[in-house]
Each structure stands twice: as structure tokens, then as C-alpha cells.
């Protein structure tokens, strides 16, 4: 007799983090998944991922979150990284204008490798108010013109980190329930 397997979640979503090296992707993941912050987080080579289970309006969602682990420029596994991604978070550093200018390039790559994914733009390092090079308005306008939602986060202070992942998750649940009916 076969055993009845009960899943411990309603949905499993793959979420990937992209953006220039140093913008804070690993720290955002660490903050969200473990609620810690480390200035000396040394990741493994290649790709890292973590699971986090969330309960959203009585729906249990398991997120599998992928991080490039510092290999942004050397990735030879780009297509595997994006394969099956339900949501993509593009991260830039609010204190680094160049990382914001590169968002366009990240979107080109995303458009090449991913179809129909939910996309969010995150302006990270919100806590460093004395060194801001990219205003909230700039981030918002860019995101709107590319059909993305925009949030400002800080992996250091936790500002809006949970909210960002929650927003992506809610969008994904919304999309799934639309597909079902
Ligand atoms: P990644 O290469 O995009 O994964 O970036 P990391 O997560 O490794 O972070 C790069 C550097 O930025 C590290 O020194 C972190 O301590 C720092 N950092 C990351 N997020 C924040 C943040 O929200 N605020 C501040 N002040 N520093 C951050």
C-alpha cells in the first residue's frame, strides 16, 4: 500500500537574487532566512540557496531563494540559475550609482533567460542615509517604467527586508490563484 504523502506547504516558489557584486544580496538573504547580519559572510563558490517557509493569509509557502554567491561576473550556469524562477529580485546599492545604472543590464539578462517571472527592484543599504547616490524617486520611476515594484531595504537594520520577500510571495500567490480559476 502506498503511503499518502502530505506536503507541508501549499506552494513552492523559486526566487532568485541578482545585481552587482557587493550590493548586499547575500546579506539580504541571510537577514531574511536567518535574521542575522554579518559583515564577513563568506559564501561558497557558485550558487547558494536557502529555504524559508512563510504563512501568508492561511497559505503556506516554501521559498527556495537563490544567491549568486559572489560569482556574478563569472557565472557559466546562467540559464540554470534562472530556470524555473518564479520571482526575481534585482538589487542595487543606494550608495553606489553604478550598481543602479547596471540594473538595465541585469534586466536584459533576465529577459533573455526568464519568462513570466515576478520582478522586484530593491534599493539596498537604506540605512546609509549620509551616502545616498540614488534617491527613492529615481528607483521608483525606473521600476515603474519597467513594470516592477520598488522597495528600499537595509539588510543591516532589517528595514523592509521581510516586506520585500512578502510582497514577491503575495504577487506569486495572486498569480497562481488567477491561473487556477
Ligand atoms: P553581495 O555581493 O551582493 O552578495 O553583497 P554582500 O551581501 O556580500 O554585501 C556586501 C557588503 O555590503 C558587505 O560588506 C555587507 O556587510 C554590506 N552590506 C550589505 N547589506 C547592507 C546594508 O543594508 N547596509 C549596509 N550598511 N551595509 C550592507
UniProtKB/TrEMBL annotation:
The keyword GTP-binding applies. GO terms for cellular component: endomembrane system. PROSITE patterns: RAB, RAS, RHO. Transmembrane segments: none annotated. SMART domains: ARF, RAB, RAN, RAS, RHO. It is found in: Endomembrane system. NCBIfam families: small_GTP. This is Uncharacterized protein.
